[in-house]
Write a structure and sequence with these properties.
Layout (H helix, E strand, L loop, with lengths): L3 H13 L4 E3 H8 L3 H16 L4 E4 L2 E3 L6 E8 L5 E5 L9 E3 L12 E10 L4 E3 L2 E3 L7 E11 L4 E7 L6 E4 L8 E2 L13 E8 L8 E9 L6 H9 L8 H8 L7 H4 L3 E2 L6 E4 L8 E7 L5 E8 L1 H4 L5 H9 L3 E3 L2 E3 L4 H7 L7 E11 L5 E12 L2 E4 H8 L5 H5 L4 H21 L9 E5 L5 E6 L4 H24 L5 E3 L5 H13 L13 H10 L6 H10 L5 E3 L23 H14 L4 H41 L6 E10 L2 E6 L5 E5 L8 E4 L4 E4 L5 E2 L4 E10 L4 E6 L1
Parallel strand pairs: 16-23, 17-24
Antiparallel strand pairs: 1-3, 2-3, 4-5, 4-7, 5-6, 7-10, 8-9, 11-12, 11-14, 12-13, 14-15, 18-19, 19-22, 20-21, 22-23, 25-26, 27-28, 29-30, 29-35, 30-31, 32-33, 33-34, 35-36
């Protein structure tokens, strides 16, 4: 019997073929099938042939349809029922492929699917209630039909359970999961009306088929404290508890550095090294030291916790850390990559205790150039646990308690500020793009209730640590690249010129010019563009839109440079407690320094593409989960303010309406087009704006508006406003 897993393997194998044909025997060898299963495989291939996914040209031989007609990618659904395919191969189509609701087949949001590209079709006029809204967009778009689901992203769905006399059902909390899930009475697990549950899908959707499922876990009532964390953990598949094997290994780890651990390591315990982190940080990956040399050069030491000494390859802790990929940080808690015995204990560079480190020691001249460097395994005793706020106060030039308390360290921080500005100027000269978009700082009381949401403060201390960590990461990447062995890079590819052209046209309509040279966009071009907007009200929002035209940074086994940093080589080395790629880079660095065996290098090189893909994926999942909790917390904060009016600014416009950000709170919401009842509004594609036909009122990027909060829906984490 050919299993579903084997069918999925066949589909992925077929679509990965570089040549345009294959044989029945090719697939048999690929799956290593017994003779009894070959007949079932033949039935499956006949099924694919009837669906047009493959074409049988003679007995046992098949060809693939034109790759322009059949594409794969990840489906991103919209709450209104349609979706877009984010293609695996961006060389075929520059834009995401539109999938109408009628062409979804069995697919759900987030699935990897196979899609047939059918025809061009201009966008239809859309209606909102009784009012029509015209669009001046004339572009045509390809349209696709889902023919196969290659990989299910969500085997389970989190939703609100509803009782019903004929059949109970679940409404998913993620509006992009566009189907309600019918639950047979025998599969409710005793869930009560209104409870939040997790359900496994037992029957996928179809053209005339309602999806069905069974309740696997009851999370609780929507009003239960902390329910949002359970929802997000299940929704994104975040593992919270560590396996007994990993916990046992963690417990067996020593609480302090032993004499044996210190042997053959360089002793940095007399160095004046400090950690600088946020007030709530509990795990300290990095400490920094800095000296002015007789030559007036700087000797910068970036000392990183030697996690790889305690987390060895092949252990249960390593397997679990790899599976998680990264720590996930929420406003008042975290899901760590490593057990707390390690992350907050022996691996954390706490002040006044010995800790093992892997250090990058860099001699830097007055222009920021690295004159010399070396990497060394050492033992360190951090002098102080500093915070960004305290260091900024010390460097402010004003008298303060912090300045008196850390008078002995003040000269060190002044030298750090000096070197920080030198390194920052060097990056600017080579064209690095400094986006500097503020993040939300969500303040909670002891009960977990949100009391304020403000832009997170960024001061000179943040910049110091950022510049020093960037320098260490580049230095390590350069060494790994030149060593010729395996490496894991942090890459940021050049942006898609078509998307940038569209953004440049839009920015030009608002009076901002993004130039390109010799047909290409360089990091320096974006740097100059950002400088035009300095201190302008639309700076944040145009920068945000610009970022949407960029590629997403990711991990790769091949070096393709980092466009945003204008760096030839870059990697992640400085956070091994919370990121698996950094832990791996530590191992790679150690092996390159001791010139490891060819067998080890060959083994890790074979695994590197898989590691890069997996860790990039886990990073994206963690970021989505963090954003989801942030959105829920913002809705909780605003729920008792329904009906109140706020000053806001427009920061994004779509055909369905526009998004606003409140000026007094770091909170965003949506103004549906249907609420604009004072005029007949035309959507202007070129300027991403709405223009009233009679009164000529315009809503565009940067427009200040007075809005009223109409609803705060915690289930969908959505705030809806209307213009007053």
């Amino acid at each position: 019997m050919v299993t579903q897993a084997q069918k999925d393997q066949v589909l992925q194998y077929i679509h990965s073929l570089q040549k345009n044909g294959f044989t029945f025997r090719d697939v048999v060898r690929f799956l290593d099938l017994d003779s009894d299963d070959r007949r079932n495989l033949q039935h499956f291939l006949d099924e694919l042939d009837s669906e047009g996914i493959i074409h049988r040209i003679k007995k046992g031989r098949y060809i693939l349809p034109s790759r322009e007609n059949l594409v794969s990618g990840v489906l991103s659904c919209h709450r209104d029922g349609y979706g877009f395919l984010v293609l695996d191969d961006r060389t075929l189509f520059k834009e995401d492929l539109f999938i109408p609701g009628r062409n979804m087949g069995e697919a759900l949001h987030g699935d990897r699917v196979l899609v047939r590209v059918e025809r061009k079709k201009p966008p239809e006029r859309r209606s909102f209630g009784r009012r029509r809204v015209r669009s001046d967009e004339k572009k045509e778009r390809f349209e696709g039909t889902v023919v196969r689901v290659l990989e299910r992203k969500h085997p389970t769905v989190v939703g609100r359970f509803h009782e019903h006399t004929r059949f109970p059902y679940i409404i998913p909390l993620d509006a992009r999961m566009i189907y309600d899930i019918r639950i047979p009475f025998q599969s409710t697990k005793g869930a009560k009306d209104g409870q939040i549950v997790v359900a496994a899908i037992t029957l996928p959707p179809g053209r005339n088929q309602i999806p069905q499922g069974k309740v696997t876990e009851i999370l609780g009532s929507p009003e239960d404290p902390g329910i949002e964390y359970k929802i997000v953990e299940h929704k994104f598949g975040l593992p919270v508890e560590f396996s007994p094997e990993a916990l046992a290994e963690a417990e067996a780890t020593p609480d302090r550095v032993t004499k044996e651990d210190r042997s053959h390591r360089e002793d940095f315990r007399n160095e004046i090294a400090v950690t600088i982190d946020g007030e709530t940080a509990r795990d300290f990956d990095d400490a920094v030291s800095l000296k002015k040399m007789p030559s007036d050069n700087y000797l910068l030491g970036v000392h990183i916790a030697d996690v790889s000494h305690y987390v060895r390859e092949g252990t249960a802790i390593d397997a679990e850390a790899y599976e998680r990929g990264t720590s996930v940080y929420f406003p008042d808690r975290a899901i760590p990559m490593l057990p707390q015995k390690l992350s907050n204990g022996i691996c954390s560079l706490k002040p006044g205790v010995d800790r093992l480190v892997l250090s990058a020691l860099m001699e830097i001249d007055g222009k920021g150039k690295i004159i010399d460097f070396r990497f060394v395994q050492g033992v360190l005793r951090s002098r102080e646990r500093m915070t960004y706020t305290a260091v900024a106060e010390i460097l402010s030039g004003e008298d303060s308690k912090e300045k008196d308390r850390y008078a002995e360290l003040a000269p060190l921080f002044e030298t750090m500020q000096e070197l920080c500005l030198i390194l920052s100027k060097k990056r600017y000269r080579r064209g690095a793009v400094d986006f500097d978009l503020p993040e939300a700082d969500i303040q909670l009381d002891r009960s977990g209730k949100v009391i304020s949401i403000l832009p997170a403060e960024r001061n000179i201390a943040h910049r110091i640590i950022e510049e020093f960590m960037l320098q260490a990461n580049e230095c390590v990447a350069g060494w790994l690249s030149s060593s010729g062995g395996p490496a894991l890079y942090r890459i940021h590819e050049e942006p898609d010129p078509v998307k940038v052209d569209e953004f440049a046209e839009f920015a030009s309509a608002l009076g901002y010019k993004l130039e390109r040279h010799d047909g290409q966009y360089r990091p320096r071009d974006f740097q100059k563009f950002i400088s035009q907007m300095e201190r302008k009200p639309e700076q944040k929002f145009l920068t945000y839109l610009m970022l949407r035209s960029f590629m997403q940074a990711r991990y790769s086994e091949t070096n393709e440079g980092h466009f945003g940093l204008a760096a030839a080589e870059y990697t992640h080395f400085t956070s091994p407690i919370r990121r698996y790629p950094d832990l791996l880079v530590h191992r790679l660095l150690k092996e390159s320094l001791k010139k490891s065996s060819p067998e080890w290098s060959e083994m890790i090189s074979e695994r590197m593409p898989e590691i890069a893909t997996h860790t990039s994926s886990r990073e994206r999942v963690a970021a989505e989960a963090e954003r989801e909790i942030e959105k829920i917390k913002k809705v909780q904060f605003m729920k008792d303010k329904v009906g109140e009016e706020f000053e806001a600014i427009v920061f994004s416009v779509t055909r369905q309406g526009f998004f606003v950000e409140l000026l007094d709170h770091y909170v965003e919401g949506f103004v549906p087009l249907s609420t604009l009842v004072d005029d007949f509004y035309i959507y202007k594609e070129r300027t991403h704006s709405f223009l009233g036909e009679r009164h000529r009122r315009r809503f565009q990027l940067g427009t200040k508006v007075l809005v009223r909060l109409d609803s705060a829906d915690i289930d969908t984490a959505r705030l809806s406003f209307s213009v007053v």
